[in-house]
Amino acid sequence: xxxxxxxxxxxxxxxxxxxxxxxxxxxxxxxxxxxxxxxxxxxxxxxxxxxxxxxxxxxxxxxxxxxxxxxxxxxxxxxxxxxxxxxxxxxxxxxxxxxxxxxxxxxxxxxxxxxxxxxxxxxxxxxxxxxxxxxxxxxxxxxxxxxxxxxxxxxxxxxxxxxxxxxxxxxxxxxxxxxxxxxxxxxxxxxxxxxxxxxxxxxxxxxxxxxxxxxxxxxxxxxxxxxxxxxxxxxxxxxxxxxxxxxxxxxxxxxxxxxxxxxxxxxxxxxxxxxxxxxxxxxxxxxxxxxxxxxxxxxxxxxxxxxxxxxxxxxxxxxxxxxxxxxxxxxxxxxxxxxxxxxxxxxxxxxxxxxxxxxxxxxxxxxxxxxxxxxxxxxxxxxxxxxxx
Amino acid sequence: xxxxxxxxxxxxxxxxxxxxxxxxxxxxxxxxxxxxxxxxxxxxxxxxxxxxxxxxxxxxxxxxxxxxxxxxxxxxxxxxxxxxxxxxxxxxxxxxxxxxxxxxxxxxxxxxxxxxxxxxxxxxxxxxxxxxxxxxxxxxxxxxxxxxxxxxxxxxxxxxxxxxxxxxxxxxxxxxxxxxxxxxxxxxxxxxxxxxxxxxxxxxxxxxxxxxxxxxxxxxxxxxxxxxxxxxxxxxxxxxxxxxxxxxxxxxxxxxxxxxxxxxxxxxxxxxxxxxxxxxxxxxxxxxxxxxxxxxxxxxxxxxxxxxxxxxxxxxxxxxxxxxxxxxxxxxxxxxxxxxxxxxxxxxxxxxxxxxxxxxxxxxxxxxxx
Amino acid sequence: xxxxxxxxxxxxxxxxxxxxxxxxxxxxxxxxxxxxxxxxxxxxxxxxxxxxxxxxxxxxxxxxxxxxxxxxxxxxxxxxxxxxxxxxxxxxxxxxxxxxxxxxxxxxxxxxxxxxxxxxxxxxxxxxxxxxxxxxxxxxxxxxxxxxxxxxxxxxxxxxxxxxxxxxxxxxxxxxxxxxxxxxxxxxxxxxxxxxxxxxxxxxxxxxxxxxxxxxxxxxxxxxxxxxxxxxxxxxxxxxxxxxxxxxxxxxxxxxxxxxxxxxxxxxxxxxxxxxxxxxxxxxxxxxxxxxxxxxxxxxxxxxxxxxxxxxxxxxxxxxxxxxxxxxxxxxxxxxxxxxxxxxxxxxxxxxxxxxxxxxxxxxxxxxxxxxxxxxxxxxxxxxxxxxxxxxxxxxxxxxxxxxxxxxxxxxxxxxxxxxxxxxxxxxxxxxxxxxxxxxxxxxxxxxxxxxxxxxxxxxxxxxxxxxxxxxxxxxxxxxxxxxxxxxxxxxxxxxxxxxxxxxxxxxxxxxxxxxxxxxxxxxxxxxxxxxxxxxxxxxx
Lengths: 389, 370, 541
Hints:
The structure holds three protein chains of three kinds.
Chain A: E1 2-6, H1 7-14, E2 32-38, E3 43-49, E4 53-60, E5 62-65, E6 67-72, H2 73-81, E7 87-93, E8 96-101, E9 104-111, E10 128-131, H3 132-142, E11 157-162, E12 166-172, E13 176-183, H4 187-192, E14 201-204, E15 207-215, H5 216-225, E16 232-237, E17 241-246, E18 249-254, E19 273-278, H6 279-289, E20 299-304, E21 309-315, E22 319-324, E23 328-331, E24 335-340, H7 341-349, E25 355-360, E26 367-371, E27 378-384
Antiparallel strand pairs in A: 1-5, 1-7, 2-3, 2-6, 3-4, 4-18, 6-9, 7-8, 8-9, 10-16, 11-12, 11-15, 12-13, 13-27, 14-15, 16-17, 17-18, 19-23, 19-25, 20-21, 20-24, 21-22, 25-26, 26-27
Chain B: H1 9-20, E1 27-31, H2 38-50, H3 64-70, E2 77-80, H4 97-112, H5 128-139, E3 148-152, H6 160-171, E4 177-183, H7 191-194, E5 198-201, H8 207-217, H9 222-231, H10 236-244, H11 249-262, H12 266-275, H13 282-303, H14 316-323, H15 329-348, H16 353-368
Parallel strand pairs in B: 1-4, 1-5, 2-3, 3-4
Chain C: H1 6-9, H2 22-33, E1 40-44, H3 51-63, H4 77-84, E2 90-94, H5 101-111, E3 121-126, H6 133-144, E4 150-156, H7 164-167, E5 171-174, H8 180-194, E6 197-198, H9 200-210, H10 214-228, E7 231-232, H11 234-240, H12 246-258, H13 261-274, H14 278-296, H15 306-318, H16 321-340, H17 344-357, H18 364-373, H19 379-386, H20 391-395, H21 424-441, H22 443-450, E8 454-458, E9 461-467, H23 469-477, H24 479-487, E10 495-501, H25 516-522, H26 524-533
Parallel strand pairs in C: 1-4, 1-5, 2-3, 3-4, 6-7, 9-10
Antiparallel strand pairs in C: 8-9
């Protein structure tokens, strides 16, 4: 193979890529990029995979001779990074990749590219098209609620469900739930056309929907590559993977194969009490009181009725703290509840409106947290489980 | 390709039937002594169920899938074996570059010269981190293979903690996954591990099979192949090693000891001990014992008039001279062999080698002369 | 869809599918019906008897949408999530992978959250014995005052490794090994469901090999199915599990009986060539001899059929009980030796030769008895064993009387005292005994006797030539005692005539002791000392 490309072009294409490449893996081929260049199309294609997530980026280059090689990704990135700002010439010589620009020469050993894992063709059949900015928003409203418990792998991913009239993302670790629903009736019909594509379509109570539990890593990578310039994200699904086409990137990710648990069971049917308060002042109060909250469970307590709203904490080792809140609106009976303040803060950060609505029942009931005013065509719900007293 | 595996017809038949009948189990236990083809069979079995060849005997050995397996780099292949502490991360990364280098050396050896054992410098075992890595791997679905293959070599080297941590995964691996445990010492495995696997026994290679492999694949002359096959106790690895030591120092040494013991030439022995002082090293002495064993059993056989059973045919005259006018060697042989086993253990336990050698000589003398 | 192993496919999903543990399932069911649910359960027992399965069933019974019930529906979302292991309220923890205090802290943190959407929050901790001591201690407090509606179910194969303070806070249920008949029954049901024909003998063979574990049985059954598909027969099953046919052991024992070492070794080599696992071979042989022994004692044995019984009985007749015991003890010792041996083949070969050379062992009591009577026969078997090979050489020049070859079967009559003629040969034969007797008179006397330079039987006289005055005098003083003592061994009384051999006075004062032999000849005591201590000449002055 032989090609020439401007340094800054090449660097722009590979800068996000390297973050996925495993380093010092026991399967050494995974530490490499698979580089394919084609004379006919004048395109350079770089693929990388850690087996969970596969990313292919394809872009134009001046190719004078086609070919395929595998080369250490970390070295390649660093070399390109330190090359002078000029055109870089790349060609293969025996088992070396020659990288030359001006007076700088690198000879990089190449690996056996036939050992590289099979990379799916970066083609998307029967895609679902979603707005990338909206997709990005759905990720940021949910990703913080995923579990870190390796014993229940499925909860470490974010579940994306598509129904005929809306689609939604949800994440939960059993202690908190973050859910966002977006009305859109145009996604699913295009899916029904190609049932034979191996889609896992669940049917429940005559409802047809698609469910994919996507690893957090994949979504965070997507967030990284999202930009203003490209609006459309094309998505396609197979039995055990989900594929995204975004600009020059092709992202293929494994999904968790189990069915996502029925987290809605935790949603209480009716909560008698409700208060509305300024989000920022609540955050400040919680952070302040939390200064001496116990380390082992981050417990903070709300005591609330019509006249008094107290945020407090007690720590056997250090002491206690409390702040009385002003400017809140309360409807309901006197109640109190304990919770993990870190979880509460992560939820409050995801609230869009200036004021936050919190519904609560007894000290044993979960809290439901909402935006003050619903956003058109969207429904955002957060749940926080209380701590037992 | 599968025909390269010799002397394991029963095991291969069981596996072939499992493939034919589409009843491939999720977990197998290949057990049997070292150097009889367990790993090779496991690897070929994994290759066969994934081979992409259409009209060939599977595995073909050259399709993309087979190629990746043979290099031990298939993305759906997990290979676990006893190692020193490598600080393996759950994602399968070894951060320490020395450790990584060592790991790669091991793999390189396994790919290129599988019959030669690779020795790590430190004590080795299968650590819990390997199982954690495996569980992490199992969260993913299969990348490109038909079946994901896991080989756990020397499974008896799992620590108690490792073995227990493995139980859940072993009992309920994800679908289309085949876990193959390999062990030489099945009695050392936890019953809870055994009960989760289908055991498949690998026979020791018969002497004729070893002789055949040595002469055909390694081009070794017939007499040496014969001695090597006897010494090896069904272990091809040993046989190859023995046969490739062309002029065997240990063998000559052993014969000299017996010659002196036969004539009770104690002073002569002192001279011999002096002459071999430099060779008197742990590994060398253990090697020597292997030959002592074979010669002793030859002497016993000669004494009982089973001339056909002699291994060291080329030295038959020497042997005959030694047993001349001697009696009861065959009776004492059993105890003598046990004594050698004991001596072996003592050497492993770093007993003073001078004492070992003197003891060995005196016992040789006792074997030959009541 | 890949094939699911039987042990997973037929994992019990309800109380009634848990086999042969009625003593536990009944109590649990009645506890659920009467709503007396404990905070913590401990399930113990060997592998593959249903501990984890029962833990999951219990979790479903309690958390099923219809629950608590003794018949969980297995279809509601709670049950389905428990089966899939995704339920947020039933947390299955692998005790072996989460052994540290931190893991327990994490668990305690989790305990702060009430169940979401189910009645109970249930923790199933499998392989609980692997928890570290600190982890156990951390758990103790939680177990003592568990939060409402939290239930712990521990499962372990090794209860002795669980802290007693933990055990005392749990309801403990000991699972039993599953009896062979129950395994067979279950295997039969499953073969029906799978549409497989299998003969009873195979079922029993699998069940026996499973050794009380249902999962073991199902794994073995899997193997049989994968090999035979829908028609499992005993022949194929034997082949799969490399069961060594009894006929082979029969041959071996017959050859041992016939002392046909040559053929025995040939047979053994054939076994080696077939590559049979030597451990299995020895175990099989032990079992075989066990049956022989039992048959000898007329014990009825279930494991064998009529034909085999006849075969065993006939073979048993050939061997004495002691000999069988003796062979058995050798096999047991050999089995451990094989484990550590680097060349087990040689050990086994040597053992077989040894077994061939075994003479009919006699009762220790009998031997002692004979010793007391001082019969010649007691020396015979020993020399027979130790010098079997050299026997022909000896017998050439021995007279008829002395070459009393004791036949293999020793008749009882021979245990009575047999007195021999006083001949030179018999004298040589009994010399050792004479020395022993002399020792009883005095140690010195024995040494003197031993150091006589010649001993001859001349008529009724025993002519002894003695070297040195010390020995001569010693014998002289003990002459009468010696005569009577020696006479007891022979038909007629023996007289001793002593001759003193004059030693030449040393010509040189400094004798050059060059070799050990020289020294030995020079000084019999040193010879004796050398013999006793196995000394080696290092240096002469």
